[in-house]
Amino acid sequence: MNNNDILRRLRYAFNFTDVQVSKIIAHVGAEVQPAQVAGWLQREGHKDYQALTDVDLCQFLDGLIIERRGPRPDGTVPEALSQLSRNEILKKLRIALNLREEGMLTVFEQAEFVVTKAELGSFFRKYGHRHYADCPEQVLRKFIAGLGHVPS
Fold this sequence. Notes:
By secondary structure, the chain is mainly alpha-helical. 55% of the residues lie in helices and 0% in strands. The chain has eight helices and no strands. The chain has helices at residues 3-14, 18-26, 34-41, 54-69, 86-96, 101-110, 117-123, 137-147. The model has no long low-confidence stretch (mean pLDDT 93).
């Protein structure tokens, strides 16, 4: 699952239009046209397909946090990460949706996927911590699928 797949799945889970995605990214000061968003959402091999970079996906996720929770008290915007892991994507989605452990487990239940509390906690540990675990692609995919079933 590449960045384009992640954005496509999030767009359908939240029922966003191309214009809404552009406005969400604008919250972090980046300007993206709806036509570029449409290119990101195309399947690989389509003539209008454009690869979505980690920076662009990070800007979308940071914009989603601002959209859902409001700007930081000091008004600063987080700098986009140049490399984005699945753990960081899951963490940004958790922050944007203001989910605690129980809320995240409910989302996984909606996707009919079982994740233990310990396993879930390991995805949010700092890299290098002895209980840190890389978030498998299937976990991220099922979480996004579960978001489509949970009322926002």
